[in-house]
Amino acid sequence: MNNIQIKQRLKELLVDYAVILTYLVLLLIVNLVIMFLILKEIPQYTETQSQLVATFTSVIPIILLFSYLDYKGGSIGKRAAGLKLMYNQHKFSSAILRNIIKFLPWQLGHIGVIHGMYSGFDMTAIIVANGGSLLGLVLLCMGLFRKDKRHLGDLLAGTKIEVQ
Q1: Would you write out the chain's pLDDT as a tens digit for each of its 164 residues?
Q2: pTM for the whole thing?
Q3: Nearest Cα to 5, choosing from 155, 159, 136, 145?
Q4: Could you give the CA distance from residue 94 to residue 101 in angstroms, rounded to a whole number?
Q5: How far apart are CA 115 and CA 133, in angstroms?
């Protein structure tokens, strides 16, 4: 049994969401500067190029940032909520695995929406994007409502959240 309050988990999620939004706004500003001041136009991308840009500029850096923070004891949101991340075996690979699973719904959403933009939202785009949403909902519910507050990434990585 874990005595983490739902209020603490929601605070953690909101603070981490603000961290991610801050990064994405900075990324947008950098991209706008590059497009309008250096390139002087908005580049035309293929679907593959769009998928790679989304993956390598947003998802992978966020996974790496949160993995580093988790390896050091927990994300900014966890610290703000008075929580810490504990490991069965304290390895960076566990933090990476945990965050790949945690951010997989976001990546699936990117894949589905980007594919949909190029395909007119065919069945593949709808299934992948909605699959990402469903997985995200499952992870959220696990983290909020399981007695031990562990989501799939925690179970696979051998981690758990505790009150500091």
Answers
A1: 678 999 999 999 999 999 999 999 999 999 999 999 999 999 999 999 999 999 999 999 999 999 999 999 999 999 999 999 999 999 999 999 999 999 999 999 999 999 999 999 999 999 999 999 999 999 999 998 999 999 999 999 999 999 98
A2: 0.93
A3: 145
A4: 11
A5: 15
User: Look-up: residue for tokens 């994405």?
Assistant: 24
The count of other CB atoms within 10 Å of the CB of residue 137 is: 11
Alpha carbon of residue 129 to chain centroid: 15
The answer to whether residues 83 and 119 touch, using CB atoms and an 8 Å cutoff, is no
Count of other CB atoms within 10 angstroms of residue 56: 10
DSSP-H helix ranges across the chain: 6-33, 47-54, 60-71, 76-80, 92-119, 123-145, 152-157
Tell me the CA distances in angstroms from 101 to 26, 37, 108, one per residue in order: 25, 37, 11
CA nearest to 113, candidates 94, 132, 97, 96 = 132
Distance of alpha carbon 126 from the chain centroid = 20
